[in-house]
């Protein structure tokens, strides 16, 4: 990662926030209700990459979906506010938007990148159709030729050849599908991108390429990223700030290098120790990795 | 390309199987069909020459000393020449002429009714599956129960209610017999009027199956990841329903449509019996009652050809609408 | 497709994996494997079971309590009365008695064909798919060819060639079974293939389990709901097909079935003579039995596809969420 180093933490907090989440709670209304997200608060600055780390089931995906109101019953937002600070002026209360306004807001101001390697692309229509239907829906005044041009343009931005427009999802490799997902997210030049485990299913070499693309695109288009993953070392590489989630709560939120050098919370320390290192004695990790903290309660 | 070649090959095999089955059945079952047939023929005033006997023996098997293989070969040749024998029931008409006269009625009635019930069932199923837990869900058990009802019983009740009691539609026949058959407006209108009740009965009895299948598939499809992506993209609900959900959910139904064509033909036989509709099914029944084996065989062959042909078309269509099948195999 | 108003967003609830994880986190014990194979008792299922149960009881026990259905009286066609609950046919035979015996006859054939057809489809579908390779291709081709050849015409032709005298219940049953197994075998094959390729089967094989045990312990329990569902379909198909055949006069004249009753009713001009007591009951019994079986099949569907369960619980959950929100 040499093309761009993570921004200095102090400068990002001086810039105005693009998204403010206050006291957000999400409950699963099953027979015995489960609180999946508990009173989460954070502010996402412009052009910032905010990492969101935690183990499976800690609520990070639920949180991401709730911000965009993609959650479905039995999940329900029980309290809190999500406010989007539009760069064109004005604040948007996401939880208060009507259905049609929400639909128009989605993707144009805030887009998402899912694990494309899985099933996130429609298998029976071409890549071109899936890219263009965003434009047909949100930019109805665009001509057919402009749409086609734009679709080709975003593909080339992520390093996929334009000829792939006529392909179908099953004809693309995992890495290519992920790039298509990113290209799709860029179509309307949103201000925030939420990425949910975008590289988890890919092998490490491809993963590195994708991450470089993301950083490069962020520099070119100036959008903020919420990067969700369980892979903490990865976040240490690319994030400006990192939020650690445990059991639905954010237990620590600090600049990347601060998390690395001086983690405050018990769980953060445990997470950091849970990854093997490429240096040091062989066998050290197994013998001493997740050590003392096992005896403590969470 | 490979997919289409494979499909075509399969249908050739099926065709061969049907022809062979047609050849073997009369020879495997008890009774001597040739003698029975010739006796009937003589009753109707037909002449039983050795040539006629030979022709029937080729179709049905007999006491000749020829090997089975030789008979089979000649049978196939005759079939491809269009020589299916002479009908006893409609003597002296050729089997092939009897069939050609009645085939259009069946194809139009059954074809239209089946397509209507497919389209209706799939469309309703998509809507019901889209938003579960509403009053629309009651459609599902309702129409499925209708599918469990014996079709002809339902048809007869319809005749009783709409025809005998309310006098809305004619009970029997394909068209008003005073009219001359032909492509005139009057004739076509009459045909529509007579075909309405049989068609509606077919639709009502079969729509349930399509609805249930599509609705179940919609439920599965809606939990797929690409639906989530579509929602996150801010697409309109109607676009998601059409291009993302239904477009994927309909695939098994299309595959099933091909299979159902065989059953549809079966159903049409009952329909034509109840409504005395002049199609190919009623001819089959007359043939059975009159021991007209040649006609029976000929009709079976035709029906099989029609079903195979339709199946082939639907299968090829499936290869077009699901791009993944072209990659498999 | 009509334009749907906004606010009707599609939503189904969670995938079964998510539900299981949630339950595990709550400390809710998972149901035992066999218990989870059974459907939950909902009103539709209860209705289905009652309908089917009552009709089966009627068919089994009815004949012991009714009059002799074959006795011909010269009172002719009469409506329901104290002596004959459902009236008489044109030859003075008691309709209710006939109904009991006919129900038994139809149930017999339904069961017979159901069992035969399921055995055939299980063999060609499950075994073929599990064996794989050439056997699988061969079986699959065979069943597809049989499937594509139209059934009823074939049955009619076969029945037509068999002289009336020799057409017994077993003949009909065998002919129906032979023409009816192919659709089921496709479903079973697809299901077996999807299970065969799952990780836990591969794990069992790698661990050295013998094929037979793998089938019995890993594959069969997952196939049971589908098998049950196909068995029920086969019964419905058999009863409807047999009634259709009998109605056309091609059934087994030696035994009395519901289809035969309808044949006699039709030939006795029951509808034209407004003798509804003769015409309606047999068809009604077939319809209600088919209904009952279909309702049972719905519940089995939910086991095969747990997402359908979510669809049903969706409304309940939404109300719960709304109640908690206020």
Describe this structure in words.
The complex is a heterotrimer of chains A (298), B (329) and C (326). Chain A is an alpha/beta fold. Chain A has a domain at 1-102 and 224-275: P-loop containing nucleotide triphosphate hydrolases (Rossmann fold), CATH 3.40.50. Chain A has helices at 9-14, 60-67, 99-105, 127-138, 144-157, 174-186, 204-221, 232-238, 256-261, 266-273, 284-288; strands spanning 17-28, 34-45, 49-53, 75-85, 91-93, 110-113, 192-196, 224-229, 241-246, 249-255. In chain A, the strands form two sheets. A six-stranded mixed sheet of chain A has the order 6-7-8-3-9-10, with helices on both faces. In chain A, strands 2-1-4-5 form a four-stranded antiparallel sheet, covered by helices on one side. In chain A, strand 9 (241-246) and strand 10 form a beta hairpin. The longest helix of chain A has 18 residues, at 204-221. Chain B is built from 14 helices and no strands. Chain B is globular and about 80 Å long. Chain B starts with a helix and ends with a helix. By secondary structure, chain C is mainly alpha-helical. Chain C has one domain: MetI-like (MetI-like fold, Orthogonal Bundle). Chain C has twelve helices and no strands. In chain C, helix 11 packs across helix 12 (306-325). Chain C is globular.
How is the secondary structure organized here?
The complex is a heterotrimer of chains A (298), B (329) and C (326).
Chain A lengths: L8 H6 L2 E12 L5 E12 L3 E5 L6 H8 L7 E11 L5 E3 L5 H7 L4 E4 L13 H12 L5 H14 L16 H13 L5 E5 L7 H18 L2 E6 L2 H7 L2 E6 L2 E7 H6 L4 H8 L10 H5 L10
Parallel strand pairs in A: 3-8, 3-9, 6-7, 7-8
Antiparallel strand pairs in A: 1-2, 1-4, 4-5, 9-10
Helix pairs in contact in A: 4-5, 5-6, 6-7
Chain B lengths: L1 H27 L4 H11 L6 H11 L7 H14 L13 H36 L8 H10 L2 H15 L19 H37 L3 H8 L4 H13 L1 H25 L4 H10 L3 H29 L1 H5 L2
Helix pairs in contact in B: 1-13, 2-3, 5-8, 5-11, 5-13, 6-8, 7-8, 7-11, 8-10, 8-11, 9-10, 11-12, 11-13, 12-13
Chain C lengths: L15 H10 L17 H23 L29 H37 L1 H16 L2 H11 L7 H12 L1 H15 L2 H8 L4 H37 L10 H10 L8 H29 L1 H20 L1
Helix pairs in contact in C: 2-3, 2-11, 3-4, 3-6, 3-7, 3-9, 3-10, 3-11, 4-7, 5-6, 6-9, 7-9, 8-9, 9-10, 9-11, 10-11, 11-12
């Amino acid at each position: 990662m040499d093309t761009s180093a993570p921004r200095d933490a102090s400068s990002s907090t001086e810039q105005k926030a693009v998204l403010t989440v206050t006291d957000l709670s999400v409950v699963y209304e099953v027979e015995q209700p489960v609180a999946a997200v508990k009173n989460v608060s954070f502010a996402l600055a412009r052009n910032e990459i905010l990492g969101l780390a935690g183990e499976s089931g800690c609520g990070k995906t639920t949180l991401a979906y709730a911000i965009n109101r993609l959650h479905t019953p039995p999940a329900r937002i029980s309290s809190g506010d999500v406010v989007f600070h539009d760069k064109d002026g004005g604040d948007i209360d996401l939880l208060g938007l009507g259905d049609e306004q929400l639909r128009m807001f989605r993707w144009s101001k805030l887009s998402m990148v899912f694990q494309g390697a899985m099933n996130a692309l429609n298998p029976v229509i071409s890549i071109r159709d899936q890219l263009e239907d965003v434009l047909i829906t949100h930019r109805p005044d665009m001509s057919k030729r402009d749409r086609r041009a734009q679709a080709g343009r975003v593909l080339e931005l992520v390093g996929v050849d334009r000829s792939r427009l006529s392909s179908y999802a099953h004809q693309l490799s995992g890495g290519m599908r992920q790039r298509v997902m990113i290209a799709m997210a860029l179509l309307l030049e949103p201000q925030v991108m939420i990425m949910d485990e975008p590289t988890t299913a890919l092998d490490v070499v491809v993963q590195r390429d994708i991450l470089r693309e993301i950083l490069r695109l962020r520099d070119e288009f100036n959008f903020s990223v919420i990067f969700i993953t369980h892979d903490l070392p990865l976040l240490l590489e690319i994030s400006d700030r990192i939020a650690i989630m445990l059991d639905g709560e954010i237990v620590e939120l600090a600049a990347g290098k601060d998390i690395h050098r001086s983690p405050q919370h018990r769980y953060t320390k445990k997470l950091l120790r849970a990854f093997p290192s490429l240096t040091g004695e062989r066998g050290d990790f197994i013998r001493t990795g997740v050590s003392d903290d096992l005896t403590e309660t969470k | 390309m490979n997919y289409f070649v494979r499909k075509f090959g399969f249908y050739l095999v099926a065709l061969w199987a049907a022809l062979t089955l047609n050849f073997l059945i009369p020879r495997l079952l008890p009774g001597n069909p040739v003698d029975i047939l010739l006796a009937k023929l003589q009753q109707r005033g037909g002449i039983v020459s050795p040539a006629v006997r030979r022709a029937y023996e080729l179709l049905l098997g007999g006491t000749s000393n020829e090997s089975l293989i030789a008979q089979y070969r000649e049978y196939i040749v005759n079939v491809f020449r269009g020589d299916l024998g002479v009908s006893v029931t409609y003597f002296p008409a050729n089997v092939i002429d009897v069939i050609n006269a009645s085939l259009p009625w069946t194809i139009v009635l059954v074809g239209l009714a089946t397509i209507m019930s497919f389209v209706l069932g799939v469309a309703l199923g998509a809507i019901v599956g889209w938003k579960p837990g509403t009053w629309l869900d009651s459609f599902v058990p309702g129409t499925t129960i209708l599918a469990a009802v014996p079709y002809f019983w339902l048809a007869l009740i319809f005749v009783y209610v709409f025809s005998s009691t309310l006098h809305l539609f004619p009970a029997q026949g394909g068209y008003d017999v005073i009219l001359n058959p032909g492509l005139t407006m009057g004739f076509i209108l009459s045909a529509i009027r007579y075909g309405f009740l049989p068609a509606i009965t077919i639709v009502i009895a079969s729509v349930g199956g399509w609805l249930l299948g599509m609705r179940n598939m919609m439920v599965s499809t809606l939990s797929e990841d690409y639906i989530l992506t579509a929602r996150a993209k801010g697409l309109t609900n109607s676009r998601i329903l059409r291009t993302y959900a239904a477009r994927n959910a309909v695939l098994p139904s299309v595959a099933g449509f091909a299979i159902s064509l065989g059953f549809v033909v079966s159903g049409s036989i009952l329909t034509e019996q109840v409504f005395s509709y002049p199609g190919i099914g009623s001819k089959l029944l007359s043939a059975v009652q009159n021991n007209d084996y040649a006609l029976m065989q000929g009709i079976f062959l035709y029906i099989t050809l029609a079903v195979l042909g339709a199946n082939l078309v639907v299968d090829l269509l499936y290869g077009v609408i699901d791009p993944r099948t072209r990659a498999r195999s | 497709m009509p334009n749907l108003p906004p606010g009707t967003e599609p939503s189904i609830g969670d995938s079964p994996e998510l539900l299981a994880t949630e339950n595990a986190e709550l400390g809710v014990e998972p149901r035992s494997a066999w218990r989870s194979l059974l459907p939950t008792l909902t009103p539709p299922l209860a209705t289905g079971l009652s309908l089917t149960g009552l009709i089966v009881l009627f068919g089994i026990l009815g004949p012991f309590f009714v009059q002799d259905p074959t006795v011909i009286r010269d009172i002719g066609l009469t409506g329901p009365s104290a002596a004959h609950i459902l009236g008489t046919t044109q030859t003075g035979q008691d309709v209710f008695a006939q109904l009991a015996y006919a129900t038994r006859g139809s149930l017999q054939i339904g069961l017979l064909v159901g069992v035969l057809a399921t055995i055939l489809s299980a063999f060609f579908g499950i075994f073929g798919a599990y064996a794989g390779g050439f056997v699988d291709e061969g079986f699959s081709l065979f069943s597809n060819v049989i499937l594509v050849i139209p059934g009823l015409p074939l049955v009619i032709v076969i029945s037509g060639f068999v002289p009336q005298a020799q057409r017994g219940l077993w003949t009909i049953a065998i002919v129906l079974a032979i023409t009816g197994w192919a659709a089921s075998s496709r479903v079973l094959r697809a299901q077996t293939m999807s299970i065969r390729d799952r990780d836990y089967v591969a794990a069992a094989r790698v661990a050295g389990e013998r094929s037979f045990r793998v089938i019995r312990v890993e594959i069969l329990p997952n196939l049971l709901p589908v098998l049950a569902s196909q068995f029920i379909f086969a019964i419905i198909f058999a009863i409807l097909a047999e009634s259709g055949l009998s109605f056309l006069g091609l059934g087994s004249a030696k035994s009395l079935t519901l289809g035969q009753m309808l044949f006699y009713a039709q030939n006795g001009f029951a509808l034209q003579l407004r003798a509804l007591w003769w015409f309606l009951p047999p068809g009604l019994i077939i319809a209600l039995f088919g209904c009952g079986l279909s309702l049972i099949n719905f519940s089995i569907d939910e086991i095969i596809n747990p997402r359908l369960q979510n669809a049903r619980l969706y409304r309940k959950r939404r109300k719960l969420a709304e109640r908690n929100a206020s």
